[in-house]
Design a protein that fits this description.
alpha/beta, 8-stranded parallel barrel, two-stranded antiparallel ribbon, 9 helices, 12 strands, about 40% helix, DUF692 domain-containing protein
């Protein structure tokens, strides 16, 4: 099963995030990497070193855009100026799809610069989906929404997080960027079964998967992207691949960033887990 409708028909395997500490290594050594994910907002500028590096990367690699500032859950709609600048970058990168987070983050023009949780209500789902339909129509490229990590729940929630994610993406007819580390983090903090989450997500909508590490504290864990991926997260990834097929996979490492080789080696562990999942899927089909 593939999610080609939500990837522009492009199939990718393993990639990593493009981060500035690795610029020099990538440009000089030209490592064999499937694709790079960029944070859109880092390159939504008029010029300078970031765009210069991006153009050199684009000469040799496929780049997929991932954003942190769309805020589709905003009650008063999405920032039009942000969309115009995002569309200019899309034309520059020729990204086959774009992704951002299912959250809100600004009000009356004031930006929180954080991924704030949306109440899981039917009204919020309808308003968020309406924003996303407008965004996808304007950007003219497939759009995928990522589940965010959470550290609490609203008393007024009318459905589970995984039901809300599916409801919004069905109403908006957009894809899903399934972050299995975020699922694990939220499951520990909010005490639910993370495998139930993975088993509920509509597999035909999953365009991409994120894997990452996190930090554990006494009472909760935080999605810090500064450690290797732990086995329980790999297990969720394996199950997601078993259900969704060989979906594009991206390792996020954003804090205490190690060498390029260490990040790439960690990302390539996904190949073993992916092969295991697809073998299970084949065995089940043959049974």
């Amino acid at each position: 099963m593939t999610a080609s409708r939500f990837t522009g028909g492009v199939e990718l395997a393993t990639g990593i995030g493009l981060r500035s500490p690795h610029y020099k290594h990538i440009l000089s050594e030209k490592p064999t990497v499937g694709w790079f994910e960029i944070i859109s907002e880092n390159y939504m500028v008029e010029g300078g070193r970031p765009l210069e590096v991006l153009d050199m990367i684009l000469e040799q690699y496929r780049v997929v855009q991932h954003g942190v500032g769309l805020y589709p859950g905003n009650a008063h709609g999405v920032d039009r100026d942000h969309l115009k600048r995002l569309k200019r970058l899309i034309r520059r990168t020729n990204t086959p799809w774009i992704s951002d987070h299912l959250c809100w983050g600004s009000i009356d023009g004031s930006m929180s610069h954080d991924l704030l949780p949306i109440p899981f209500t039917f009204e919020a789902a309808r308003k968020t989906a309406a924003n996303l339909r407008m965004v996808q129509d304007f950007l003219e490229v497939p759009l995928a929404m990522e589940n965010v990590s959470s550290y609490g729940e609203f008393n007024g929630d009318e459905m589970t997080e995984w039901e809300f994610l599916a409801e919004v993406c069905e109403l908006a007819d957009v894809g899903i960027l399934l972050d299995v580390n975020n699922i694990f983090v939220s499951s520990v903090n909010n005490e639910f079964d993370p495998m139930e989450y993975v088993d509920f997500v509509p597999p035909e909508r999953v365009a991409q998967i994120h894997i990452a590490g996190h930090s554990r504290y006494e009472r909760f864990i935080v999605d810090t992207h500064d450690h290797p991926v732990i086995d329980p997260v790999w297990k969720l990834y394996e199950r997601a691949i078993e259900r969704c097929g060989p979906v594009a996979t991206l390792l996020e490492w954003d804090g205490r960033i190690p060498s390029f080789e260490e990040v790439w080696t960690e990302a390539r562990k996904s190949e073993t887990w992916r092969a295991s999942a697809l073998a299970k899927k084949g065995d089940d089909a043959a049974a």
